[in-house]
Amino acid sequence: MIAIQGATFIYPGATVPALENLNLAIEPGEFLAITGPNGSGKSTLARLLNGLLRPLEGRVLVDGMDTSDDTALITIRRRVGMVFQDPDNQLVAATVAEDVAFGLENLGLPPAEIRKRVDLALKSVGLENLAARPPHLLSGGQKQRLALAGVLAMEPRYLVLDEATAMLDPVAREEILEQVLRLRREQGIAVILITHLMEEAIRADRMLIMKFGRIFWQGSPREISHQERLLAAAGLRLPAVIALAKSLRQGGIKLATNPVCVEELARALWKLASRE
Amino acid sequence: MEISLQGVDFAYQVAGRQLPVLYNIDLKISAGDFLALTGAGGSGKSTLAQIIAGLLEPTAGKVSLDGRVLPGRGKFRGASPWSRVGMAFQMPEQQLFAETVMEDVSFGPRNMGLSPDRVKARAYKALEAVGLDPETIGDRSPFTLSGGQRRRVALAGILAMEPEVLILDEPTAGLDPAGQELVLDLIRDFARRRDRAVVVVSHNMAEVAAMASQVLVLHRGRIALQGTPREIFRQEEALRAYGLLPPPLTQLMHSLRQRGAPVPTDVLTLDEARDAILHWLKA
Lengths: 276, 283
What we know:
The complex is a heterodimer.
Chain A: E1 2-9, E2 19-26, E3 31-35, H1 42-49, E4 57-62, E5 65-66, H2 73-79, E6 80-83, H3 96-107, H4 111-124, H5 140-152, E7 158-162, H6 170-187, E8 190-194, H7 198-201, E9 206-211, E10 214-219, H8 221-224, H9 228-233, H10 240-250, H11 262-275
Parallel strand pairs in A: 3-8, 3-9, 6-7, 7-8
Antiparallel strand pairs in A: 1-2, 1-4, 4-5, 9-10
Chain B: E1 2-14, E2 17-30, E3 34-39, H1 45-52, E4 60-65, E5 68-69, E6 85-88, H2 101-111, H3 116-129, H4 134-137, H5 147-159, E7 165-169, H6 177-191, E8 197-201, H7 205-211, E9 214-219, E10 222-227, H8 229-233, H9 236-241, H10 248-259, H11 270-282
Parallel strand pairs in B: 3-8, 3-9, 6-7, 7-8
Antiparallel strand pairs in B: 1-2, 1-4, 4-5, 9-10
GO molecular function, one term (chain A): ATP hydrolysis activity
InterPro entries (chain A): AAA+_ATPase, ABC_transporter-like_ATP-bd, ABC_transporter-like_CS, ABC_transpr_CbiO/EcfA_su, ECF_ABC_transporter_ATP-bd, EcfA_1, P-loop_NTPase
Membrane topology (chain A): Peripheral membrane protein
């Protein structure tokens, strides 16, 4: 479990805290989505989870290890993998394969094990054919998949994706999300997804909306997906499908359920049509 | 003004080997056009945008401005025809460098050799065009601003050069919905004048639908589809094969149609989708 206890964080020179007295527990294997407008503190929160930032007050415990304990940091960072929005800052080596191997070499693993993990990680993100290519010649989306491969190769228990799919095309985004969720099912990796997209957040078990460095709302994403006013207050947009469902209701269509995605709305409408 | 590409190929040189990215691209952008370049990651759309902007030179083929074949920007010193074309890279805010917002936005026009008064006037106008108040924000460091504000400062720096063609690579990626809306508004504002043209690289089809008059889909370095947003979104299977998805409402119409509902699949707005569904259910 990752436990954030009364954490406050203020950036140097800032007058307002980026995070204020935050309390949050993330369970192993959980799928948690964190949303909120730019500047609401979600990226700061992400950086607390593996000790990239440490709270000024309060503490963050990863499986019982305190992120302010320097001797535990290496273990903590292996357990909590992070992929950021901008992969350029995360890529270091001359080729794609070397880039994935970089972190593993630092762990002192035997070469055969490194090769196995590199192959597996590249395959899982669909980059196995580009292993010899220099990272700077990859497209934005390919770089992002490479950054993800580098993190997956470390076999983390918690995977934090901070707007990690923002630069991906829709099919690649879906593939990456599917892949991450499959790892979660198979290996019990917890997924912490930081996103502006309600369409993505809606698939999580639990959703958290940040605002002004605090938790503004938390609960089931289905619950909030139809509360337009609450979403607007959090700077989020009503997903197109839900907005359409609402508009159809106002037009006299009696939908039995609250659909949250294309397939659910299509099914509900088709049911209505076949009944009549 | 008109930019035209004829038979353009492009390959990167990697360790003495050619890495082809674009093949035989023919393309014309004229004043009044709003072109969306789309395609899966790695399809070559960012590279193509940089060729249209004169930042990369094609390996083969010709790029011309107003009918004159031109070498790339790098071959010119000082003023060049390319200064009429502005380009915003992905995450342009990462290239902000000056100590204040005003200095950053003034950099381009100053380099064009304008007088200090005109530089200032242009910087003010550009900041206002992106919805920022030059008086309150001009003296601040870009690093004290939010991500969305920084993005708009970077775009103001390009607008201050008063380009006739504006090329933007994923202009809204990574912004929250409010920030995205502001950036789309400023692009629409720019495009309102008939003597201007816009090229947007985007894989967000809902965004493309709302803005572009023409869509060009790239697949593995070649032009795979070309047409109006309606013509493109009708082709759901082809889009999927090229790594793209139509906007959610178009997906819904396709899904209903597959089930047998007689609904159109080329809706672009929520109102169109609603009216089509109401028409079908009440028929």
